[in-house]
Amino acid sequence: MINIVLPVDFSDATTKLLESAVKFAKETNGKIFLIHVAASDIGFAIGDMGFQYFPEVEENEMKHELTELNNLEKKVLEHGVQCEHLMKQGVSGDIILDYASEKNADYIVMGSHGRSNMYDVFVGSLTKELTRKSQIPVLVIPIHD
């Protein structure tokens, strides 16, 4: 059995990535480890009084994201593929690589939108970062909008 780490962000690309990872897992007798890295600054706002923190906003968003992650796990299980999930807050690249190492991952499955290098300069690309840093093979699935 191979271990496949699948980072998800609940964007439009998530459905295609999930389908591809499930297909890959079925072909290789794999197990999928879903991971979602939640933003660490969800409850912060800047206003006239400076920075303010609203814990209820962060708590509600975290509950919503955990529900989404649970739903994705159910979809994987419905296809007869073993699955676990984890949600953490922090630096995405580091957390994903640590999780992949912890789970003895054979592959990390990521998506690529094929955007320009200029996009990467200003926004960054988690897929690009992981393909550079990872000791574990990164399977990149093209995602076309």
Automatic annotation (TrEMBL):
Q: Which Pfam families match?
A: Usp
Q: Where in the cell is it found?
A: Cytoplasm
Q: Which InterPro entries match?
A: Rossmann-like_a/b/a_fold (IPR014729), Universal_stress_UspA (IPR006015), UspA (IPR006016)
UniProt domain UspA: residue ranges: 3-142
Q: Which GO terms describe its cellular component?
A: cytoplasm
Q: Which UniProt keywords apply?
A: Cytoplasm
Entry annotated with the keyword tRNA-binding: no
Q: Does the keyword Cytoplasm apply?
A: yes
Family stated for the protein in its record: Belongs to the universal stress protein A family.
Q: What is this protein called?
A: Universal stress protein
